[in-house]
Design brief:
With 521 residues, this protein is an alpha/beta fold. Helix content is 29%, strand content 19%. The protein contains 15 helices and 23 strands. A hairpin with a 2-residue loop joins β21 (492-497) and β22 (500-504). The longest helix is centred in the C-terminal third of the chain and has 16 residues, at 416-431. The protein is globular, with a radius of gyration of 23 Å. The two termini are 38 Å apart. The model is unreliable at 1-7 (pLDDT under 50).
Length: 521
């Protein structure tokens, strides 16, 4: 192998000794891969390329760098510390701006609403930008550990237009902001229709925005319902996506035991849409627990008007009785684990455990946690079934996305933040054989590259950018769990970005070698 002094810049290098998973799903094969500067220049049978400096990768699988189809690491460039949670998994590219949350645009008149909206998900941010182009300039200047492909969020657009109100926004204003973001380099429009204020949006509002995408753009959505009304939500997403041009369903799942078994029905709807000529894909993460804001447990009426309104409802004299009646006994508090709070109290305990420790009931525990932490609480919700997850994984149009929450919040985030891609290759490929290894790699590489129109990545072939990962198929696995989630995985040996080594022997070398990408036209 090269010395560490050689690992900070692209150069000519011959990768030898590995079995190649080229990203297309074809069987593994022995192959030598030649990198010249930032690009792959040759792929050939072993021993046929000579006269170049070599990097030996015996016993490893060489693959395109993994593409995280669903990330919330928009803020990673703005952190002083490097966010290594993805690069140590072999992820070289992240699609950010998901679930309707992007860091821009915003309008000065709605600056407080913008801050509160982002504060539900992101750590405190020094917002120095207004337009999407200004945001991209700021993050580009700060530097990227991985490549970023930004979406623009519908929720952020709505806050810019009308704040946290449930009132109908100025569609013309939102369309103009969306058009600016797309011109600046956004890969598409995302929505998160369970989060305020996006949950107040009508299908017509979202369709009007989809029209800006001109029939060839991408609409990626955290759908309006992933439980009792999953199939209706799929139908709505397809209606909006047909106008946009292409549809991507974020983290396809069925939540709550009474809805388990409905993911195959959702997949059938997607198959019929494809048969009708609609380009639609979906992503999943390889866990049966989700993670989101604790406020998503609250009924819709608590969420209109911003944080002040929500806190006022939760601290009113009759708050406990009112919320108990509104929830109607349908919430499984023993399945809701507190992941992250600003004070770091209660992390790693369920609401049922918190209630027992405080000699109260779970509804009061929910109120107390939300009020004392000023609503900035992330939870982990054990709500899905393994059979549904495996059904989604088997579908050939399913990509892999971590849905990892933003770095910088601390606490005990969902272990998908550090383990998603190794877990697919370990549990669902090596151990359970839901996917074979070449197909698993395709789902992480060429399929998301095609879905999001990411240029020159996702396949190991001459002319493509040398974003690559080498891993040990026998030892790769996720290590973090729900109580200790930040432990990095094992078995990811080497990662390079545009020909520059960034991970050696499983260790990040401390260079921000990624870049913000622009969509292929």
């Amino acid at each position: 192998m090269r010395s560490s002094s050689q690992e900070d810049a692209p150069m000519t290098e011959l990768l030898t000794g590995a079995h190649l998973a080229d990203g297309t799903g074809t069987p593994l094969r022995p192959a030598d891969v030649l990198i010249d500067d930032t690009r792959i220049t040759a792929v050939a049978p072993p021993g046929t390329l000579t006269g170049h400096p070599r990097r030996d990768l015996p016993g490893l699988v060489l693959a395109p760098g993994f593409i995280d189809a669903h990330s919330h690491a928009d803020n990673a460039p703005l952190l002083t510390e490097h966010d290594t949670t993805k690069i140590l998994q072999g992820v070289t590219t992240e699609v950010v701006g998901n679930c309707g949350f992007s860091l821009a645009p915003h309008t000065p008149a709605r600056a407080d609403d913008h801050r509160h909206h982002l504060g539900r998900l992101f750590p405190p941010l020094p917002v120095t930008w207004r337009t999407f182009a200004e945001l991209l300039h700021t993050t580009d200047t700060a530097g990227h550990v991985t490549n970023h492909c930004p979406l623009v969020g519908h929720g952020t657009l709505r806050v810019a237009a009308t704040g946290m109100s449930a009132a109908g926004p100025s569609l013309g204003h939102m369309q103009a902001l969306l058009d600016e973001a797309m011109s600046a380099g956004a890969f598409g429009l995302s929505s998160g229709l369970i989060y305020p204020p996006a949950l107040f949006a009508t299908t017509d509002e979202l369709t009007a925005l989809a029209e800006v995408l001109g029939g060839t753009g991408l609409y990626a959505t955290h759908m309006r319902d992933e439980g009792d009304h999953l199939l209706d939500a799929v139908d709505e997403a397809l209606r909006i996506g047909r106008v946009a041009g292409r549809t991507h369903l974020s983290h396809l799942k069925a939540t709550h035991p009474r809805n388990w078994g409905t993911v195959p029905d959702a997949l059938d709807r997607l198959h019929r849409a494809r048969a009708d000529g609609h380009d639609v894909r979906q992503d999943v993460y390889p866990y049966t627990a989700s993670s989101t804001t604790l406020t998503s447990v609250l009924p819709t009426g608590y969420l209109s008007g911003g944080d002040h309104h929500t806190l006022a409802r939760l601290t009113a004299r009759n708050a406990h009785a009112e919320l108990t009646a509104a929830l109607g006994g349908s919430t499984h508090f023993d399945r809701i684990l507190i992941a992250t709070t600003p004070s770091h109290r209660h992390e790693g305990r369920t609401l049922a455990e918190i209630a027992e420790a405080q000699s109260t009931d779970p509804v009061q525990a929910l109120i107390d946690v939300l009020v004392t932490e000023e609503l900035r609480v992330a939870m982990i919700h054990f709500s899905m079934h393994e059979d549904d997850l495996e059904a989604a994984l088997r579908d050939p149009h399913t990509t892999i996305g971590s849905d990892g929450l933003p770095p910088g919040n601390g606490g005990r985030p969902h272990p998908r933040m550090t383990g998603t891609f190794p877990r697919v290759l370990a549990r669902y490929t090596r151990d359970r054989a839901v996917l074979d290894l070449p197909e698993a790699v395709r789902r992480m590489t060429s399929l998301p590259a095609d879905t999001f129109r990411i240029p020159d990545r996702g396949i190991v072939a001459p002319g493509h950018v040398a974003d690559l990962v080498a891993f040990d198929p026998a030892t790769i696995r996720d290590v973090g769990d729900y109580q200790d989630p930040m432990r990095p995985p094992t078995g990811v040996t080497w990662v390079c970005l545009a020909g520059s080594t960034v991970v050696e022997d499983g260790r990040f070398l401390g260079r921000r070698a990624g870049q913000r990408l622009t969509p292929k036209t």
